[in-house]
Amino acid sequence: MDALTQADYLALWESGQALHPIDQGLLAVQAAFPETRQENVADWPLGRRNRALAQLRCACFGPILSGWTACRQCGEKLEFKVDGNALIETGALADAPPTVSISGRVFRLPSSRDLARLATQSAPASAVTQLLDLCLVREDAGEAPTAWNEDDLETIGEQLSLADPLAEILLDLRCPVCGDSFQESLDLAAFFWSELEGRSKRLLLDVHTLASAYGWSEAEILSLSPARRNFYREQVHA
Ligand SMILES: [Zn+2]
Question: Beta partners for 100?
Answer without folding.
Answer: 107
